[in-house]
């Protein structure tokens, strides 16, 4: 019985610790975007999928598929940071989103962008509760 209590206490502590850390995740990712903006070549287009992987916005399997909405979250963060987003055709029907690096300074303007960065809401739930809980678009 004591073992079950210890497991519950450990799980509770993990969730509470992750809840505290989840509020700073967006700021940590913004700092990473700043570093990537300096590291990549001038005008280099980085795919949203690769950027989501670099920012650890999802867990990736063998096929490289991220969690639902991870590329959209990467694009949203870069758009909020003031980086331009371009859309290129890949194949006959597919379009892929890219972030153009070193084309603009990181500059967060607008109340909505500031609010999204400072108040991540439920976007970090998969980090807090583990990979079994998936982020869903529109949640």
Topology:
Elements: H1 2-39, E1 45-47, H2 48-54, H3 70-80, E2 85-90, E3 94-100, H4 111-118, H5 125-129
Antiparallel strand pairs: 1-3, 2-3
Helix pairs in contact: 2-3
Q: Can you offer a commentary on this structure?
A:
The protein has 139 residues and is mostly helical. It is 50% helix and 12% strand. The protein has a three-stranded antiparallel β-sheet. The longest helix has 38 residues, at 2-39.
Largest sheet: 3 strands, antiparallel
Taken as a percent bin, the fraction of beta residues is 5-15%
- Summarize the amount of helix as a percent range: 40-55%
Mean pLDDT level: 79
Q: Count helical runs.
A: 5
Indicate the low-confidence ranges by residue numbers: 60-64, 133-139
Structural class by SSE content: mainly alpha
The tally of beta strands, per DSSP, is 3
SSE topology string: HEHHEEHH
Question: What general form does the structure show?
Answer: elongated
Using only C-alpha atoms, the radius of gyration works out to: 17 Å
The order of strands across the largest sheet is 1-3-2
Terminal-residue CA separation: 38 Å
